[in-house]
Amino acid sequence: MAEGRKPPPPPPPSTGAAPKKPVRSAAPPPPLPKATKDRAKLASEAMALRDEQLKARVVYVDPSLQTNAELDAITAKVVEELQELQRAGMKAKMPADPGQIEIELIKNLRELLEKMVSARREHFLRHKVELIQRKIANLYFTSEVYTKPEDAHAAKYDHADEALLAALQRHLDAIVEDLLTFQYREPGAREQAIDRIQRFEKKLAADVLARSRPELERLLGLYRDVLLVFLLKDFRESLGEFAWEVVQQSQIARGGELSYKILEKQFPRFRSVFEEKFMDRLLAALQEPLARRMQDEPDFDFRPATLRFAADPRIYAEICGTMCNTIYGYLHGEGFLDLPVSWQMQVYDN
Known about the structure:
By secondary structure, the protein is mainly α. Helix content is 68%, strand content 0%. It has a domain at 36-57 and 93-145 and 214-348.
């Protein structure tokens, strides 16, 4: 060692403690309830929304429209004769044992559904999931930019523009009404004032949505992944039990006309049970992976409002409606389901 130089100071004694890691906030609550009774409640709410959507979309023929009475009579006679021939042909082919028909219905339903949710149709299923994503995005945007007037005071706002938007929406109708009734000297001033307040509202809404867009994109990605796994794996693997439950509980092979396909008049019972069983499986299958994926985001915590949104029954009503309508259209195209005309419009428009 050179003369005059001091040795370096010894290193500080080790405390044995590992360096501290950044602390992440507590795991978020699951977006879907774990308890069966809570999932049943959510399923019931979603199915009620689904029924409301259907009632709003059913199109009936206007009874006031003028028709040709002679042509109507001829058409009715032809339809009656065709139905009689069909019934006669079916009776000749049908076994007398409803149990045998039930077995065939279960078998055919399972086989058709297995074809529909097979890996060969993954591209088609991805297209349907993309449609669901767009519907979820619309619901999300609505929940982000619109607060019910009665909920505005109870809500908690993270940013100034959110609070300002909620306040403006509460009073927008009254403001526009004032602008309409005010007196103006300059022509066009009324329209300019109304346009300006409406553009201001749209600007606030755009600012709110721009800030929440990254979170929405993550959420939509999660739904895409878990829905594809559900359709191609979870739902597909349960199709034997699913088809058995639907056919048995809808009683489509018991009483009335017997057929190896689902008749039009049997469709309401079939649909009710089909969607109930589909919804049960959907919520049960999505609960765990959706919660896990939300917690696996290492650098991203979903806001409480987004977690509440993920439990919104409207989401699952949309998923059920989109997928079940798609299935009905497929079964109809395969000749397994006689779909009512009022349903064909919305099924093929899905």
